[in-house]
Metal-dependent hydrolase
Amino acid sequence: MSVEPSPSVAEETPPRPPRRSGTSAVEVRRSPRRRRTVSAYREGDRTIVLIPARMSEAEEQRWVGVMLDKLAAQESRRTLGDRELAARANRLSAQYLGGRARPASVRWVTNQNTRWGSCTPAEGSIRLSHRLQGMPEYVIDYVLVHELAHLLVPGHGPRFWQLMEAYPRTERARGYLEGVVAATRLPHPSPEAGE
């Protein structure tokens, strides 16, 4: 019977060149010591994702997406106050709508249980449901951009969706929110159901 020596840190696969995701670079590090676990953390303006060396390219891509979403959700749990939310809305307006949407107020509300967000264009006010708190940042940003676009275009006609095309994660965020809605409608399984 032979015993293989455990791989040393020096045997880890060198990290690939970082790729960009949103505003930060993503660096994937493969390790032969990792068997099943995947983890990620922020290091300055980079995100480091640690994966097992045996993972395929497709698995790597899937896990990078999963871990970016988890980190974003953790970060958004550190709840933004209304002031930070307003500053974020202004940045998003500048980035995706040419700065044309200028909200007078942006705030969290606890009385919106059937909508993710709403706005009153005449007042320039935007309200986001507290249920968004803890969701990934790109989802909150989507709802903010959605409401900002309504300050410029009422309704959901072609002009509105043309504005929304500027936000690159629109479809992904909509899918996430649809999944949340679907999950709340599912019957909760009994403890014996999974066994």
